[in-house]
């Protein structure tokens, strides 16, 4: 055991921390692995055992303190590219059959025929009028 340099042990530790990173998808293990690689570099440069452990701790804690909040902020953001029915909200459509509050009307929205109803139950839209889609409830577009 004494024949193996300390930097090799740090690299083995980094690889060992990489396994749970892949298995559990917890990025903290990756940050600890980077700390172990930094300690391996310190060991390769001739730092003592205490200094190697301090390098590991400082780099690992710094990465967790800096990267983790950034990652959390990015994961909390909604995607900028709307897909599915979310992409249809705010689009304009053409009335094909009279649309009122009953939900029996039809519109042409994004090249497809949709059932539609008016957001304002007292308002009706006649054939040929352009309307704006404000929401989608099931297979019915809510328009104004």
From TrEMBL:
Its main location: membrane. SUPFAM superfamilies: NfeD domain-like. It is a multi-pass membrane protein. Pfam families: NfeD. Keywords: Membrane, Transmembrane, Transmembrane helix. GO terms for cellular component: plasma membrane. It comes from the Bacteria. Residues 85-143 form the NfeD-like C-terminal domain. The chain crosses the membrane at residues 6-23, 30-47. It is found in: Membrane. InterPro entries: Membrane_assoc_protease, NA-bd_OB-fold, NfeD-like_C. This is NfeD-like C-terminal domain-containing protein. It comes from Streptomyces griseoruber.
